[in-house]
Amino acid sequence: QVQLVESGGGLVQPGGSLRLSCAASRFAFDYYAIGWFRQAPGKEREGVSCISSTDDTTYYADSVKGRFTISIDNAKNVVYLQMSNLRPEDTAVYYCAADEFMRPAQFSTVRAMCIGTIPSNDWGQGTQVTVSS
Q: Is residue 33 within 8 Å of residue 50, measured between CB atoms?
C-alpha cells in the first residue's frame, strides 16, 4: 500500500494561487499514476488532474484547464498541483490518489483514473482549499 500525504492547502482570495504537494511512499511497481481529486460540501468527488509517472501524460478536468498545472518529481515521489486564478467554486478538500500498473500508463488509463472508471486504491487524508474574499 502506498502512503500519500498532501500539503499546501489554505485560504486564498479569488484570483490567487496555491501549490499543493502530494508526497508518496516508495512504489512497488515501476509504473504508476497519481491524481488530484476534490470534494466540496454536498457534492460528489471529482477528478481534477492526473499524471503518469513515465512520460508525464496528463489529464485535466474541463473546469480547471488553463488554470491548474500538474507536475511530477519522480526522484522525490512528489506530485504538485499548481493552481492559479482560483475561483470560489474551487473550494473543496483536495485529495491525491495513486494507482500502480504493470506497464506505462497511457492517456486513456490516466483519464480513466481521473474520471473514476479505474478506482484508485490508495488515498491521502486531504487538504482544505478555501477560495474566499
A: yes
**Which letter, b or e, does each residue of 51-72 get, where b requires 16 or more Cβ atoms within 10 Å of its Cβ?**
bbbbeebbbbbeebeeebebeb
- The whole-angstrom separation of Cα 106 and Cα 10 is 33
Q: 14 with 3: CB under 8 angstroms?
A: no
Gap between the Cα atoms of 4 and 60, Å rounded: 20
The cell for 107 is 492517456
Q: Are 84 and 68 in contact (CB under 8 A)?
A: yes
Q: pLDDT of 65-123, one tens digit each?
A: 999 999 999 888 899 999 999 999 999 999 999 999 888 899 999 999 999 888 888 99
Structural contact between residues 51 and 34, judged by C-beta atoms closer than 8 angstroms: yes
**Separation CA 120–CA 24 (nearest Å):** 14
